[in-house]
Write a structure and sequence with these properties.
Distance between the termini: 98 Å
Largest sheet: none
Strand content: under 5%
Order of helices and strands: HHHHHHHHHHH
Shape: elongated
Helix content: 55-70%
């Protein structure tokens, strides 16, 4: 074999530009970014709507292509995953029950050494995918004790359809990440093999209308989960607090039944869950507190207590 033949045999796919340096991944991140105190749902809405603008603007310019749709799709699911991680982190920092449940979890030494204290709970989920109904339900149950969520993926009946759509979205996400959009057999089985078998190894071809459906489905899920978790946890602060009827007292502090006296504590929870941006913004804190007090009075009345 001549040198020319050896070179030809060893370079079937020649590289146009030789790589002579190692990539500097530190330059890829915004080192000036400061974590905001916006609620998880506000951050989700910001991220989702920002992604929506990308493909809608491309469509308005006549530049939309299905490959952009596939990339946008991954970003949408990532926005939902980020919401769940942020929600769990914020609850661990504020709610005694969530904090206590998290205390038995293990952290890597590197996370313990290098994470800021306020962001440390995020490290608990580094090995957990939130692109899964089962994982989301399990974390909300085991860490936060949210009722009607189960370790094996059970969800409240009023959220069942929303999570069913989420699971379908997540299965398609696997195709985008691992198979450049082509449908694999495992995803076809989970989505319904009878309907999807003709589409095996076919690529995604997402239209703008498809992406809008996905965005609406994800936003409906996040808003539904957000409302359910808030109501469930804020009620528990009373039912599992002093004077509550729960078998185990989980809170040592009682509500004073006065907004001025309770505002600081109540606001800790309100700030985690409230949506601050129109048009679907949350009611003012005073109104939500008033609704919570109505629940407390009714609960106590059923217990034979009198609240004024």
């Amino acid at each position: 074999m001549t040198p020319i033949e050896e070179t030809l045999l060893g370079t079937l796919t020649p590289s146009g530009t030789p790589i002579t340096s190692k990539l500097d991944t530190t330059a890829w991140f915004d080192s000036t970014h400061v974590a905001t105190e916006r609620s998880p749902i506000d951050e989700f809405v910001d991220n989702l709507y920002g992604i929506n603008r990308l493909y809608l603007q491309a469509e308005s310019r006549g530049e939309y292509k299905p490959i952009l749709g596939s990339l946008v799709y991954l970003g949408m699911v990532s926005a939902a995953e980020s919401y769940f991680r942020c929600l769990l982190r914020r609850l661990i920092l504020v709610d005694p029950v969530c904090n206590n449940n998290a205390s038995s979890r293990s952290l890597t030494y590197g996370a313990a050494v290098h994470h800021e204290e306020s962001l440390l709970p995020e490290a608990l989920f580094e090995g957990v995918s939130m692109a899964s109904t089962k994982n989301v339900a399990s974390e909300l149950k085991t860490l936060c004790g949210v009722t009607q969520m189960t370790k094996d993926g059970g969800v409240p009946s009023h959220l069942h359809l929303l999570f069913e759509n989420f699971e379908s979205i997540c299965q398609i996400r696997h195709c985008g990440i691992h198979r450049f959009g082509k449908l694999g057999s495992q995803q076809a089985l989970r989505l319904g093999i009878k309907a999807h078998s003709p589409l095996l190894e076919k690529p995604l071809k997402l239209s703008v209308a498809h992406l809008q459906d996905v965005a609406e489905a994800l936003e409906a899920l996040i808003r539904g989960v957000n409302s359910h978790c808030f109501a469930d946890i804020i009620k528990r602060t009373h039912t599992a607090g002093p004077g509550g009827r729960d078998k185990v007292q989980m809170y040592t502090e009682a509500w004073q039944m006065d907004f001025a006296a309770d505002r600081e504590r109540f606001n800790l929870y309100y700030e985690i869950f409230a949506a601050s941006d129109a048009p679907l913004k949350s009611e003012p804190i005073e109104n939500v507190y008033s609704a919570f007090m109505a629940f407390v009075r009714q609960y106590d009345a059923n217990s034979g207590l009198i609240r004024r």
